[in-house]
Amino acid sequence: MKIYSHENQMLHQPKTYFSRGKMRQPQEKPERLIELLKAPKALGLTVITAKDIGIEPILDVHDLGYVDFLKNAYSEWMAVEEDMGEEVQTTIYMPNNNEGLGILAKAAKYQADGSAPIGKYSWTSIYWSAQTALNAAQNLLTQETEQNKIQVCITRPVGHHARKSAAGGFCYLNNAAIIAQYLLKKYNKVAIIDTDMHHGQGIQEIFYDRKDVLYTSVHGSPIDFYPVVAGHEHERGQGEGYGYNFNFPMPHGTDEAGFFDYVDKSLATVELFNPDVIVHVLGFDVYKDDPQAKCHVSTEGFQVLAQKLKELNKPLIVLVEGGYCIEKLNDNFQSFLSGL
């Protein structure tokens, strides 16, 4: 097993978070990475510093104009003579019929909600989060062996809500989609297994009309719960991608046994697809005491989850994404790593 991260992911420090009618305290913050990094250290595992794979794999998934916005929005925001605040943030959401004339219009075009502000160093962290994921993919493309068949990426900011040209849900670049696309250089079929508390509507959107990437997601019902407009069971894909998108929305309040019932259904679908490689979006926000949780997974449950993934006996890349009960991230991640 190999584990990757990069210290530049610490630089993104959001100060604002607008959700459901009011400002809230940011939850996707650098302290998460500090706690997550304690887990491999406690288990005597080495964390590899990610290297720069380049921008091209990012642009294979995301629109150039959107990536340009993420990279340059802060400097354009600060160049406005009026005091605009410390971060690029908008309450105007107009992705269509918007020519992007001016930074406020660009923010309205490319920020899908109020949870993805852009600060002075955000782009650096966003970029290195994607590079951390890409290091695992690059290693599988060039050096797949039994010793590195399983790879874990400690990534922030998180990614699965990021759409082709929109940030939201604490997400900016869709790491799972980026590495799935990158892995297709060698592999014919990639399966993405998402067990984060929230549906990854960004992944779904990107691969919705394709059959080379299977997307399965176990998540809380999106009825009045983020992302609210996607993640329902009837969303099965379109065109040649029909039947390659599987959502397993859990009723809010689902217990641990119920969670694993849904996980087993997801894994059965993946086994039927018989992928060459698996990408797992791991969310610790399914933990019973997480502020985002609508189910009740225990610390010990993450070890069980890891064992189930390992039993698929496929090359596996794990992306550590959601999880906002900071004081339990270390314990929960140790449990998961022990299962691998």
From TrEMBL:
Record bears the keyword Cell cycle: no
Pfam short name (any one): Hist_deacetyl
UniProt record, GO biological process: epigenetic regulation of gene expression
This protein's record includes keyword Hydrolase: yes
MF-aspect GO terms: histone deacetylase activity; hydrolase activity; metal ion binding
Cofactor list: Zn(2+)
Keywords, sorted A to Z: Hydrolase, Metal-binding, Zinc
Organism domain of life: Bacteria
Span of domain Histone deacetylase: 28-339
InterPro entries xrefs: HDACs, His_deacetylse_dom, His_deacetylse_dom_sf, Ureohydrolase_dom_sf
PANTHER family hit by this protein: HISTONE DEACETYLASE 8, HISTONE DEACETYLASE HDAC1-RELATED
Family of this protein: Belongs to the histone deacetylase family.
Protein name per UniProt: Acetoin utilization deacetylase AcuC-like enzyme
Source organism of this protein record: Psychrobacter fozii
